[in-house]
Amino acid sequence: MPALPASGYRPRSSTNALKDIVEDSIEELFAVWDARFRATYGPLTRRVRDLCERFVRCGDLHFGFLRLRCSNPDCPKKEEKLVPYSCKTRGYAKWVNMLSARASPRVRLRVFQGFAALGGAIYFAYSSSSGILLGGYLSSTPKEVVMLEFFIDSEFKLRQLRSCPVGEHMDGFADRLHSAGYRRRPAQLILRGAAHLGHWASVRDIQVDGFDQPVLDSFFRHLARCACTHAFRGRTGNNAQGARHFVEHLQRTGILTSSAAKPEPLPALIEAFSDWMHRHRGVADSTLANHVPVAKEFLSALGDDPAAYDASRIRSFIFSRASRTGHSRAKQVMNTIRMFLRFLSVRGYCSPDLLGAVPRIAQWRLSSLPRFISAQDVERVIATCDPTDPRGSRDRAVILLLARLALRAGDVRDLRLTDICWSRGRLRVVGKGRCETWLPLPQDAGDAVLEYLDHCRPASEDDHVFLRVHAPFGPLPSSGPISKLVRRAIVRAGVKSPSLGAHVLRHSAATEMLRLGSSLDVIGAVLRHRSVESTAHYAKVDLTLLRSVAQPWPVDGGSPC
Question: What is the predicted pLDDT for the residue at 539?
């Protein structure tokens, strides 16, 4: 399949039964509300009117999703359907249960019950045969707080937790665990660990506001030889995990101040250099973290008066620093020094001629071949992901985006829900240097992402497209997990690959586009290369082109090369 089919992703129609019913009957509902529904549901507020009218104007998948799940006992397959619902502001629900009931032998009603962003509920009841809207209501009740009862049924254990030295914080901690997606048993073990920490601290007269990292470290050492007699004793790792999560919860709620060490203040020149790299070079924090230590070391060695720098001192530092590292690290050191000197020269702190004092490491351009696998092997890798499993569905969507659009692992990790434009079949990628690009969304990749969002993505307020599959639910911490899931898929498929990271799919996509006849300019645009020399790297795998320029091997009696 071509990496970028001309048709791109075919957006789904925004027409659906719920939108049609609301659009046809909403004014009638407003007119009869006081007479028919006010006594039961309360007054019709302006907020309800605004949300309903906004939905009628919108009703497009581009602006949000609504999951409908059939919970009728007569519905053995528990069918689910994704329909347009909210309008970007997500005023309506994140998930919805579709309930069925019989109002009469002749009319079957379906009631759509959704929970709004603030915990309110909206009800739409309509006849599937006549399509008449019967009622609607959005409550204004505050968000329900999940307490210990959500995880623990025993009244005795509830009393034990609430009467422990940190019992006043347990209900809030339970609400935090629920929001993070923890299941009952793991949450119970974490709550035990928090209670264990409370009892241990109480014996040593340590107050809750004194829970810092040294206290946690002392508690971890205690776990190895724990001989407590209270109900929450134990030496397992769950106790340590529970204590750590409990302290993080107290810090997040403001009961404790963060125990994280404050970063050492940077010299004024390094601060200005960091700001300059951010503003004018578009460098990400992760990249800047590699440059700052080298720049600090350079400043410490040569002094904080750039006007006194000379070529010999600069070269002496570079040779001394580069001799302690390998080839790639030495190259990075020289790049950092070159950028730092360029910053100093732009600010007028030193002569721009000093840039010539930074040597270049010998490097033969285009000396290596792109590391790629064939299109058939890419399909085998994709096929190893089970779309019915939450992890498999996520991994399949990730791999398809990497393979079809030649994205970097960091591009996929940073992808947000608002970066996907379903109505126009495209997605936005912000790459190196904060360069924003819109790319067409291939059909199979779009279907895989939609399947993941519809059925397998955990419920979370985080707007990253791809989340962790285990609690605590949230964004992937870095691009590392993206490369790891690609590695696992390649190993499962039994594919012999020159490398096992996510980048091999980027090289494979570019190579396949070249094989299908795409020009280097087109490939460079998809890969978002700034220089044509970077894209020319792939010309060496175009065997047809290479055969047309290859010289015959000299033979006896033939002409020399």
Answer: 63
Residue 558 has what DSSP assignment?
S
Q: Which amino acid is at 349?
A: Y
529 is catalytic: yes
Q: Are 327 and 361 in contact (CB under 8 A)?
A: yes
The active-site residue out of 428, 432, 487, 488 is: 432
Select which of 338, 342, 506, 507 is catalytic: 506
Burial degree of 359 (CB within 10 A; 0-12, 13-18, 19+): middle
Number of C-beta neighbours around residue 141 at 10 A: 10
Our answer to whether residue 503 is catalytic in this structure is yes
Tell me 530's DSSP state.
S
Cis peptide bond prior to 472, omega within 30° of 0: yes
In order of 30, 35, 129, the CA distances from 91 in angstroms are 19, 26, 29
Structure tokens that stand for 89 in this block = 């502001």
349 in active site: no
Task: Indicate which residue of 503, 507, 528, 537 is catalytic.
Answer: 503
pLDDT tens digit sequence for 308-353: 899 999 999 988 888 887 777 888 889 999 999 999 999 999 988 8
506 classed as catalytic:
yes
428 is catalytic: no
Cβ–Cβ < 8 Å for 467, 476: yes
HEC readout, 166-188:
CHHHHHHHHHHHHHCCCCHHHHH
The helix (H) or strand (E) run that includes residue 82 is strand 80-83
Q: Where are the alpha helices (DSSP H) in 83-150?
A: none
- Residue 346 host element (H or E): helix 327-346
Question: Which DSSP letter does residue 14 get?
Answer: S
Active site residue 245: no
Choose, from 157, 162, 487, 529, the residue flagged as catalytic.
529
Quickly state the pLDDT bin for 121 (edges 50, 70, 90).
very low
Asked if 425 and 13 count as a contact pair (C-beta separation under 8 A), the reply is no
Please count the CA atoms within 13 angstroms of the CA of 131 that sit on its side-chain side: 10
CB 401 within 8 A of CB 251: no
Does the N-terminal peptide bond of residue 359 adopt cis geometry, omega within 30 degrees of 0? no
User: Is residue 419 within 8 Å of residue 428, measured between CB atoms?
Assistant: yes
Closest CA to 479 of 416, 411, 428, 392: 411
Cα separation of 238 and 244, whole Å? 10
pTM above 0.70, yes or no: no
Of the candidates 85, 126, 137, 538, the residue annotated as catalytic is 538
Is the sign of the CA dihedral 118, 123, 128, 129 positive or negative? Answer: negative
**Which tokens belong to 550?**
């290859």
